[in-house]
Hints:
Keywords: Lyase. The protein is built from ten helices and nine strands. About 40% of the residues lie in helices and about 15% in strands. The protein is of the alpha/beta class. It folds into two domains: about 1-100, Enolase-like, N-terminal domain (Enolase-like, domain 1), CATH 3.30.390; about 110-225, TIM Barrel, CATH 3.20.20. The protein has a six-stranded parallel sheet with strand order 4-5-6-7-8-9, covered by helices on one side. Helix 1 (about 35-40) packs across helix 3 (about 70-90) and helix 2 packs antiparallel against helix 3 (about 70-90). The chain is elongated and about 60 Å long.
Amino acid sequence: MKTFRVPPNRWLFVRAETNDGIVGWGESTLEGHTEAIEGAFNDLWRFIGVEADNIVDIWQVFALDSLRGPVLMSALSGLDIALWDIKGKRHGIPVWKLLGGKIRDRIKVYGWIGGDQPSDVLDAAKNRKAEGFTCVKMNATDIVARIDSPEVLRGTVERVQQLQSVGLDVGIDFHGRFHKGMAKQLAKLLEPLHPLFIEEPLLPTQPEEIADISHLVSTPIALGERLYTCFDFRPYLERRVIDIAQPDVSHCRGITELHRIA
């Protein structure tokens, strides 16, 4: 088992190989924390020599024997993905078939266009449209104060209108950068524009406060990249907060947990 950094050290991939030469690949990327994930793999070497087909057993031993958190969970994600890759290759079956088969033939995707530099957004969106995208996602704003001038929000509304004017649907990522007062204001300002979704209106440690925003507007709420287990998703699902769940397979303990969340 080995890990591989991809410059500029943002991505971390995992290579696992069985005694009979089957190689599986996984991803343990945790943005900005590559060295921490590499350190966490010192605890995963204990699984060398264990039967690779016993994915759930390996998963449970590590997941139930470790504190939850982004570093250890991302390390487990990479190993788990690699083990599923090995199982599919060993049996000559794609992983999606091992998990029960597909439920759709096509899926709509969006193109990321940034947004911290407002002057670049429209040009980036036009490039995405030329590539064939019909939807884009942009940052809402840079960091704003706890209670800031409404002027910092009007620019976001104007950028969304510009993108819609060239025929694109728009999702807006708040990145959890707002405190509740500003997040509520921006969500209400954007609602008449009917964006595809707003993402992480607040940090994902605030299910009650995000529920308040969800009940305030009709805009779909997306979140989940910083939730690592099905138990982390539970309070949001119980409060009917999430319209679009976004678990990240390289953070949420791999394909095994991703399937449970779904």
